[in-house]
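Dear colleagues,

For the upcoming journal club I promised to circulate an example of a predicted protein-ligand complex. I picked one with magnesium ion because it came up in last month's discussion. The inputs are reproduced below in full, followed by the predicted structure.
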Amino acid sequence: MHGDKQAIMKLPISLDVSKNELEDVIEKAKDWALMNGMCLRSKMNFNRDVLQFAPFVLFPSPFPREEFQNACDIQITLNTLIHRVAHDYDFLKETLEETIKVDDFTRNLFDIYEIIHEEGAAQKVSLGILRSDLMLDTSCPKKDTKKLKPHCCWKQVEINTIASGFGWLGPVSTQLHKFVLQELGYTAELNNLPENNALQTLCSGMIEAWNLYGNPQAVILFVIEDVTYNICDQRFHEFEIRKQNPNVKVIRRNLTQLAATAKLGTNMELIVNNYTVSVVYYRCGYEPGQYHTKKEWNARLLIERSLAIKCPSIQYHLAGTKKVQQTLAKPGMVARFLKDENMVTKVKEIFTGLYPLDFDEHGNVAVEMGILDPQRFVLKPQREGGCNNLYGTDIKDFLESVKSEQARVAWILMDRIYPPVHKNYVVKPGTNVDLDTKEFVSELGIFGVIIGDDQNIIVNKQGGHMLRTKLAIHNEGGVATGLGACDSPFLID
Ligand code: ADP
Ligand code: MG
């Protein structure tokens, strides 16, 4: 697809609003966002006590209804898949064996996993708050030209098992867009914006885990970064938990604080200051830089050893690595975890080509492919949080430099997805809005909640979504990393 003119997707409403009306609605939308907590702390002018609205696109973005429904429908199966992967010690060990030789971060996680596996987990139940991220694709060879759709299918970008954010910013973006559409007189169109109950679903999952723990005095611990920029997203979870059950208290600590204060009780309870912790919800701990010293790693180990229910537990964290994603795309792998053949086929359809860079014949072929046609791929290390991947000629340069080094096995190569483009206006704090429409592409995230142990799945549900949109010319689009904007889907038929 690259090189060709990209396929276009259109909203069934006009974006040609007069300059005056546009400026007016932009000002209103900014204030709506500020006054409804659709905000972030500023990285540029940091002040804990000040919030800015999160970048957003003014209009919701078109998304095909059928594909949206498919993505929601498959989530429960993806939850099951990840749950089973997380509970297959042999699979995780075999899959990550080569990676952990060269990737220290994954090895540190894996070392904790090994310790827990040998000792036996005090808490067998895990809480998974997952987000499967996907993009519509235009480059699939099976394109059905008769249907005249700008896309052919959708493909999974990745599945997040730790710190799956936007449980608040997702739904509040839908509310903002409803407001904007109403302001412009599009009331009949409002029901094209699907209901988004992400926040309620994720928080009810945490409360269900809290109930399972069975101590009415116990608290939920949010493990947070040293500085939280995406503060509204986290705090609204806390407020929603209180709303759903007024007896549940949330405490927030970073890994360094936990290293100094967290202890294990006589029955392996996690004790932080005077609190017993029932559920640990990580919004941090997915990047090497978040573990400043060995102390923070020890804190993670201590939490894993404890009786608290972890979101995610260490095996869930490992199940979300890019290496696991690539391994699942190999023939026969999904069938190892899902019995229903129909579902296996459906899951495999959402995978793009994923290629290991192991030191063998397949790995060598992948390295050569990447060097020859880098525009076709994205090159990914075992990292989360955005801005770690390589694109275009950087792939070529990097692969040439690591070709004969062991380090290459820490990376995977993935087919690049080229989504259809659509037009919009982007609104960012501190800058004037460009009143010419620009071309954007979007990434949809579908939330899932799963609770269970190695024997049983107790809760398995899909609930809510989020949409992030970036300029079509950009490689990545994280909102927290400053490249993307909050968005919501407008379903089109
Ligand atoms: P992270 O764990 O850092 O979020 P991702 O795999 O989600 O890593 O990649 C980050 C971003 O890079 C995505 O949000 C998307 O914008 C872009 N990206 C990742 N994989 C692809 C792909 N196969 N095709 C096109 N863009 C991709
Ligand atoms: Mg991602």
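Two points we might discuss: The chain has two domains: 60-174+194-352+440-492, 354-416. Residues 94 and 307 are 27 Å apart (CA to CA).

See you all on Thursday,
B. R.
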